[in-house]
Each structure stands twice: as structure tokens, then as C-alpha cells.
Task: structure prediction
Amino acid sequence: MVITLENTGKRYNQEWIFRGINAAFTPGEHVVLLGANGSGKSTLLQTILGSNAPSEGKVIYRQEGKEIELDDVFRYCSFAAPYMELPEEFTLTETLQFHSGFKPFIKNLTAKEVLETTGLSKSANKQIKYFSSGMKQRVKLALCIFSDTAVVLLDEPLSNLDSAGIAWYKNLVNEHAQNRLFIVCSNRQADEYFFCKKELVIEDYKR
Result:
């Protein structure tokens, strides 16, 4: 998928969060959206995802040259963020199985096989509500990165992860980022975007 922003801007009331962004994100690119906390990079990521409509300009989605309707964009994208909720009454196994019913996993992996990669196998039958914040973040990242989607969007992926979790994340990205468009939001924590070759600094679009 190619995602193109044309003179894209977003404001709340009279305050512009960003304005005048012209950019194209293409298959296989790894891009980081850089900005301080509260700068609006999460808003930009959600605008790219299509869940937050721009106030001006537009976002265009094309797959193999054909424009994709906004209502269908979610089929091509997976998303993870610290503020994203998980079904707390589900066990980890149920969460993985439920998710795979909507978005199959890459390489035809089963829910059990994905579970084994998370390092959380001992908690397979534990309800998500009893997970620590770091465990929940691992689940979110696994669901996102293992989804068979062309576009992967990660908002501050290292939130709540300890050193072992960071190493796990980096290994996951190294194995599964090839030939997919990754867009990562970061407040300049280098381990989050170590693999990104292209950057967009949101402060450059403050007007």
C-alpha cells in the first residue's frame, strides 16, 4: 500500500496541531514520526491510519495502483499503542484466537505459534486484566506485528517494556519488518526506531 498525505493538517478549535504535510509512504519503507510528548505525533499517526479525519488536505490510500476507500483501510493496517485497550476478560489464548478471526497472522501462523513467540506461554490461560503493563504491551505488539497486513503502525512501542522486552521487540522487528511499511511514533527513544531510514519531525509542521 502507498499512503499519500496532500497538504494535510489537523486542528482542534483554533489550534493547529500540524499543517501542510506533503509526504508519501511506500511499501517496504520504515519511517519514524519524531516529536516531543504532546507535540501531536499520535494524532498524526491516527490521521495516517484513517481513524482521525484531517481538518484540511487529504490522505490517499492506494494498493497496486487502485485507490482504497477509507472504510476498507483497516483491512490493510495493524496498529499498536499504549492507550489501546485489550479485551480484559479474555485469556491470552482467547485474545490471540479472537484477533486471528479478524486478521490472520503472517506466514499462516496459528495463535499457539504466536503465543510461543511472546515469552508469555506460562500466562496462556490467564485473563488479560491480571497482566502487568509490560505484559499487555507485549501482547499489543505481537497482535500488531504478526497480523498479515501491509502497513504496521506503532505508537511509542517501548512503553512499559523492560530491558528484556526491548530486546524482544527489536528481534521481532528484525524478523518481520521486511517488505512491509512500518511507521513508528517516538519521542526520540532510539531503540524504538533503530530500523527506520526515513524520518518526519512534527515540529517542522507547526504553524
User: Anything to note?
Assistant: Residues 3 and 61 are 5 Å apart (CA to CA). The chain has one domain: 2-205. The chain has five helices and nine strands.
